[in-house]
Design brief:
The complex is a heterodimer of chains A (89) and B (448). Chain A is mainly α and 89 residues long. Chain A is built from three helices and two strands. Chain A has a domain of 37 residues. A two-stranded antiparallel ribbon of chain A has the order 1-2. Classes of the chains: A mainly alpha (89), B alpha/beta (448).
């Protein structure tokens, strides 16, 4: 994989690598992709299995439910009043 | 001595029993690192929970620094059910970061094998297997995506049971790959396994993939050995496995051999699908939710997000990068959709075989390795170690690893697979096997 292509991939998935990680992981990725290429000539059904079993539509009613422990959620983040604080967009 | 959880639960225990239990487990855990976190108990039957399953008010990190400090404000459905059955929570068990590993080494403090502390416990549910191997009366709630219950169960000499995909609710599980993740159980015997599975299975309004299909028990005396599952197994494992087949024949089972070429593609297909799903699941760890708090709020979002994710370990980074790659518009048909097609073909081939038989194989292709040995493996060599556990996991088929012999003092496990929703057939198989085989344990903490 070209360095330019790899850099673009890193940017897409928001992963930053240290200098030491960069070469090692790039080499690993190349060898794994090369391993993945073994599926190219596999004869198989043209019918993707998104799930291993057939799942019937089983969706709940679209009604709001009260969650009792809102404070518990907010404890897992930095907050201002009842707002979660995050970076600017 | 009480053997099963039901017997244990029926015996009154004084407070001193639990004091000693807490003390002993704490002391041994300092050496073996089965638990990331221990909770003192004073009643009931102990149950442990893999660190990627949420327990209300208890830090749950899935073995990752990025989730450090995350305290779930709710119980996973499986935890809620088992608490209601009067079990007592004893601790969170250690694991590979997000389940990314076969040997339990992709974390800060890897669990050690209780039979030989220089050897790995297996992964990713490493701590769950060690906890089961050291506690006499206990149930471990574990989780498997590609073999994370079977592999450590085999290396630690316990029973590892992975139910049919969808038989147990995944609500409250910190996802790795949604179409592959299955919550299961580790135990020491069939009675405890049945007891726990009866409690945790069943539908859940909070998990739309959890089905209400009845779980069957269609037993058969026919076993099938698939060539592609045994052809790369080390001879030191294959030899005792062939002796196991002879023993089973003597107990009335017939053994047939067949080839399923498509299984050769199960490892790449599995890793493509699981990495694709993992890369989307891990996108939610942005640095300002779920515990880990990056405080550089002046940075713009992309920089903030990118900097936060430096907290991922090497394997997590590798899988996020690869998962993003195989989903890229230019190659998704070549990798992701091809892998989904292969999965369908594998499911069809395995189900055809399982119509009238169980599939049996060794659980792992190698003897329990030392820590120093697995550090030398390349990622592809590492992934190849899952060759036997991946096919049933990729297919959502119920399977179980059970101990059947000891080599140089280390336990060796075999894997048995049955058709979707025929989970009880595996427990029945184990019940029959236990009549002729008694597992050994180095530790029996809590025995009465």
């Amino acid at each position: 994989m070209e360095e330019k292509e790899f850099d673009r991939l890193l940017k897409t998935c928001r992963i930053k690598l240290t200098k030491e990680e960069y070469d090692k992981i790039k080499n690993d990725i190349e060898s794994i992709i090369s391993y993945f290429n073994s599926i190219d000539n596999t004869q198989c059904q043209e019918n993707p299995a998104y799930h291993p079993i057939n799942i019937k539509e089983n969706l709940g009613e679209d009604v709001p439910k009260k969650f009792d422990n809102v404070e518990g959620i907010l404890k897992n983040t930095r907050t201002y009043r009842f707002y979660i604080v995050g970076p600017k967009i | 001595m009480t053997e099963t959880i039901e017997e244990f639960a029926s015996v009154d225990k004084p407070p001193s029993y639990y004091e000693k239990l807490n003390r002993d487990i704490n002391e041994l855990n300092n050496r073996l690192h089965a638990f990331n976190l221990l909770s003192k108990i004073d009643r009931g039957v102990p149950f442990s929970v893999k660190d990627n399953i949420c327990v209300n008010g208890v830090e749950s990190t899935a073995g990752s620094p990025i989730l450090k400090g995350y305290i779930p404000p709710f119980d996973a459905t499986v935890v809620e059910k088992i608490k209601q059955a009067s079990f007592s929570f004893i601790g969170k068990t250690s694991m590979d970061e997000f389940g990314f590993g076969t040997f339990g080494i992709n974390c800060d403090t890897p669990a050690k094998n209780p039979f030989d502390e220089e050897r790995v416990a297996g992964g990713s549910s490493s701590g769950a297997a060690v906890a089961t191997a050291i506690l006499k009366h206990h149930i471990a709630i574990a989780e498997s995506t590609g073999g994370s219950i079977s592999a450590p169960a085999a290396f630690c000499g316990v029973v590892g049971f992975t139910p049919t995909y969808g038989a147990v609710s995944r609500y409250g599980l910190i996802d790795y790959a949604n179409s592959l993740d299955k919550i299961g159980v580790m135990a020491r015997n069939s009675s405890d396994l049945r007891y726990a599975f009866d409690i945790i299975r069943g539908t859940d309004d909070y998990d739309s993939t959890c089905t209400n299909r009845a779980i069957e028990n269609f037993s058969t005396n026919k076993l099938t050995v698939i060539k592609e599952l045994v052809e790369n197994v080390d001879s030191e494992i294959l030899e005792p496995f062939n002796s196991l087949l002879d023993t089973l024949k003597g107990q009335g089972y017939s053994v047939e051999y067949k080839s399923l070429e498509i299984l050769k593609q199960s490892i790449p297909a599995y890793y493509i699908i699981s990495m694709a799903e993992a890369s989307t699941n891990l996108a939610k760890y942005t640095g300002f939710k779920y515990g880990h708090k990056n405080m550089e709020f002046t940075e713009n979002y992309n920089l903030f997000f990118t900097n936060s994710r430096t907290a991922f370990g090497t394997e997590a980074k590798r899988r996020v990068i690869l998962g993003t790659f195989v989903r890229s518009a230019s190659v998704k048909n070549r990798y992701y959709f091809k892998a989904l097609n292969i999965r369908n073909t594998i499911i069809a081939a395995l189900k055809e075989t399982l119509k009238d038989s169980l599939i049996i194989s060794p659980t792992m292709p190698v003897f329990t390795p030392k820590f120093s040995e697995v550090k030398e493996l390349t990622p592809v060599q590492n992934y190849s170690m899952d060759a036997i556990t991946i096919p049933p996991n990729l297919s959502g088929l119920p399977h179980m690893s059970f101990p059947y012999t000891y080599l140089n003092g280390m336990p060796v496990g075999a894997q048995i697979v049955t058709d979707h929703f025929n989970d009880y057939a595996l427990i029945s198989f184990l019940e029959a096997w236990e009549k002729s085989f008694k597992p050994k344990f180095k530790y029996n903490i809590g025995a009465i």
